[in-house]
Amino acid sequence: FQGGDTCEYLLSSGRFLGEKVWQPHSCMMHKYKNSEAKSCLIDKHIVFIGDSRIRQLFYSFIKLINPQVKEEGNKHGNIPFEDKSASIKVDFLWYPEVNGSMRQRIKSWTEGSVAKPHIIVVGAATWSIKIHNGSNEALAQYKINITSIAPLLEKLAKSSDVYWVLQDPVYEDMLSESRKMITNEKIDAYNEAAVRILNSSSRNSKAKVKVFSVSKLIAQETIMKSADGLHLPESSRDTNAMILMNVYCNKIMKPIDGSCCQPQPPLTLIQKMAFCFFTLSIIGYLIISLIHRNNYRKNKSCTDLESGEEKKPSISTPNVSTLEMLLHCFCKLGLIMTYFYLCDRANLFMKENKFYTHSSFFIPIVYILVLGVFYTENTKETKVLNREQTDEWKGWMQLVILIYHISGASTFLPVYMHIRVLVAAYLFQTGYGHFSYFWIKGDFGVYRVCQVLFRLNFLVVVLCIVMDRPYQFYYFVPLVTVWFMIIYATLAIWPQIVQKKANGNCLWHFGLLLKLICLLTCIYFLSYSQGTFEKIFSFWPLSKCFELNGNVYEWWFRWKLDRYVVFHGMLFAFIYLALQKRQMISEGKGDPLFSNRVSNVLLFISVVSFLTYSIWASSCKNKTECNELHPSVSVVQILAFILIRNIPGYVRSVYSSFFAWFGKISLELFICQYHIWLAADTKGILVLIPGYPMFNVLVSTFIFVCVAHEISQITNDLAQIVVPKDNSTLLKRLLCIAGFFSGLHLFSAIQDQSRH
């Protein structure tokens, strides 16, 4: 930890990821769109003063506002630019030398009531070297001139953002004869003079001229691609312009993936209350632990002097042990949430942008595949999609999704489409698992519903409070929660049709199919009626849960993307359980699922279907078009995988305990990655150990997995306490939970009002 001023790092240091992606040291750089640039610079006046290199930077900057601008006009004269729609004015002033003329122009902004520019970008030196043939007298005069200008720039820096752009190195072999005197040695001397003189008299940090030295580093890597050896290639100029935009706009726009120059967000009222709660929990747990330790010492087994028998220690009452467990859970959770906050809200640890390469995605995939195969064990049961197999399925899918996120593979469309299938497969399991439970058990009690809802939502609710994020931000949990409630409603609404009832009369099977058809019709209608969908989820209190950035469009998009797959999971469960009940499939150890002939045909069709989908996904050219087809065709690869995995008896009889272990904590892994493995709400990568990318990933991954496992245990322990089986006690707990959310809503309203 070297301090919180990431602006200095952004202006002075960094490295290239690949050929064109610039990574500032310790922070993330946002890529500004035209609309964002206009919003940030509305009613602003920006001035670029200098030579042809500054003119190039000027053009790259205004192209961020209007990409249609062409580099026209007098190259050795002033160039104005104005965007009337946003009242933005950007001027280039041709002053190729640091001399009296430049000083007079700068001085005019410091006198009287003249309107000062909001941003001033200055830089010049190569013309002085060229005109005076690189003489030492010219350098001495440059020092005198910049010494006279420095106080004026520092005065302007009190009210405006002033940047001095250091001179980029040149590619001496490509310079024309008239520029041969411009050497890197001379440029370094001029830069050294500028750095030494600027801010030498300023003691106020707010009145400092910001030295834009990062351009030198960018030029060192790219100047050999220059057309003339002096001017930077276009991609490098665009990077410099984007850095300037980040320096000024990040503190105004506060983009999630632009951590450079962003101050640490202030603690909200709810966050302060959460901090107090966890602090009291830790103190309470420590007090109870000390009391129990003292009681244990007093009641320690000892010999009775009269009877000669050993006395047994008294046992703690159940109420005390429940309280201790509760405080113990909140104590651990408080420490874990502190780590979450420090990683992704405090400016303590570094954050970096993602950068995708094929090797960064596929090599880890191969590695975990080898590990998974190495830990192969026999299953306890050989049914289709048994518990060990579904845990294994969730585990390897979750690991692939994690690698996909940290490698930034979403930019590669074929990988994106296959990951969409993995997300769909998780929802397929949701439909399959919950339908199977309700169909077989017929348990529609409140206890079951509350247990599922608590386990799904506990961590997300805590993170919404601690990390100050809306519920819909963790989109997957709302998605799974809503689908669980849809499955429950479909089967619980009269007439309740379960397996036991259907076995007595086959007509009930048709009744259940009719329910499923009604569900499919509703899904189809809502998917093509965005207005109706948004109206349903815009009603209070649903709007509080499903709004993101003031509307429910993101929720509609996420729901629509996998709208049919839960239905497919329910239908598959119904067909499979019907076949199982009629003993039309063989699930013995080592036995194929069907007869040899049928099994071979189905295996062949499954393999062809699996590969066909992969070929289609790999040939996708447009993400929007492929997303439109995905809800209807993703089930093909999911069913193909299930059949390939379950038809051969020997494949169905084994599972990977490595993948299954991760599968048991897959939900916690998916949620925790947002803040303690990735960074800036999944937009970047958390850097605990700078300078060693591989070692950093190993350390952060180890902590991340341990935390996810611990949270899984905490959730299970709390579920037993918060959601008791006794209905009367459960009702009281539900009233307490309703009171908690009412209070949370009240404080949230107060918080929003204070922000506005």
UniProtKB/TrEMBL annotation:
<feature type="transmembrane region" description="Helical">
    <location>
        <begin position="452"/>
        <end position="468"/>
    </location>
</feature>
<keyword id="KW-0325">Glycoprotein</keyword>
<feature type="transmembrane region" description="Helical">
    <location>
        <begin position="561"/>
        <end position="579"/>
    </location>
</feature>
<comment type="similarity">
    <text>Belongs to the PC-esterase family. CASD1 subfamily.</text>
</comment>
<dbReference type="GO" id="GO:0000139">
    <property type="term" value="C:Golgi membrane"/>
</dbReference>
<dbReference type="GO" id="GO:0005975">
    <property type="term" value="P:carbohydrate metabolic process"/>
</dbReference>
<feature type="domain" description="Cas1p 10 TM acyl transferase">
    <location>
        <begin position="253"/>
        <end position="734"/>
    </location>
</feature>
<feature type="transmembrane region" description="Helical">
    <location>
        <begin position="474"/>
        <end position="494"/>
    </location>
</feature>
<dbReference type="GO" id="GO:0047186">
    <property type="term" value="F:N-acetylneuraminate 9-O-acetyltransferase activity"/>
</dbReference>
<feature type="transmembrane region" description="Helical">
    <location>
        <begin position="269"/>
        <end position="291"/>
    </location>
</feature>
<feature type="transmembrane region" description="Helical">
    <location>
        <begin position="685"/>
        <end position="709"/>
    </location>
</feature>
<feature type="domain" description="NXPE C-terminal">
    <location>
        <begin position="22"/>
        <end position="92"/>
    </location>
</feature>
<feature type="transmembrane region" description="Helical">
    <location>
        <begin position="600"/>
        <end position="617"/>
    </location>
</feature>
<feature type="transmembrane region" description="Helical">
    <location>
        <begin position="659"/>
        <end position="679"/>
    </location>
</feature>
<protein>
    <submittedName>
        <fullName>CAS1 domain-containing protein 1</fullName>
    </submittedName>
</protein>
<dbReference type="InterPro" id="IPR057106">
    <property type="entry name" value="NXPE4_C"/>
</dbReference>
<dbReference type="Pfam" id="PF24536">
    <property type="entry name" value="NXPE4_C"/>
</dbReference>
<dbReference type="Pfam" id="PF07779">
    <property type="entry name" value="Cas1_AcylT"/>
</dbReference>
<feature type="transmembrane region" description="Helical">
    <location>
        <begin position="506"/>
        <end position="526"/>
    </location>
</feature>
<keyword id="KW-0812">Transmembrane</keyword>
<feature type="transmembrane region" description="Helical">
    <location>
        <begin position="629"/>
        <end position="647"/>
    </location>
</feature>
<feature type="transmembrane region" description="Helical">
    <location>
        <begin position="396"/>
        <end position="417"/>
    </location>
</feature>
<keyword id="KW-1133">Transmembrane helix</keyword>
<feature type="transmembrane region" description="Helical">
    <location>
        <begin position="355"/>
        <end position="375"/>
    </location>
</feature>
<keyword id="KW-0472">Membrane</keyword>
<dbReference type="InterPro" id="IPR012419">
    <property type="entry name" value="Cas1_AcylTrans_dom"/>
</dbReference>
<keyword id="KW-0808">Transferase</keyword>
